[in-house]
User: Fold this.
Amino acid sequence: MNWQLGGERTNPRTRAALRRIKGWVHENFRLSADDTVSVNEVACQLPGCPPIETVIVFWTREGAMRHHYKVFKPAVDVVAQDLPPWWMKDALAVSDDFECSCC
Assistant:
C-alpha cells in the first residue's frame, strides 16, 4: 500500500473532502477539540483492494487510545453515512502493537 502523495491531495475537491470527513469524525464520535483526527487517501496495489481508499485514524485523550478504520472509496465519494455509528467507537480502538502499512 502506498500513501497518495501529490496528485489528488493537491486537488481542491479532495482537500475539501478530507476536511469535511475530519469534521464528521469529530462530530460523529463526539470527540473533543483536543482529540486528533487524521484522514488520508491511500492507493492500494494489492489484488482485490480498491484502487483508492480513505483511511481514518483518531486518538482520544481519554485513555490515549488510537482508533482506526477505512472506507473503501476515494474521499470525494465518502458520505457521512459511511462512518460507523458513534457507539462503535470502542470497537475501533487498536492496541499499541497494532501495525498497518497505511497509517
Q: What stands out?
A: The radius of gyration is 13 Å. The CA atoms of residues 20 and 87 lie 21 Å apart. Residues 1-6 have pLDDT under 50 and may be disordered.
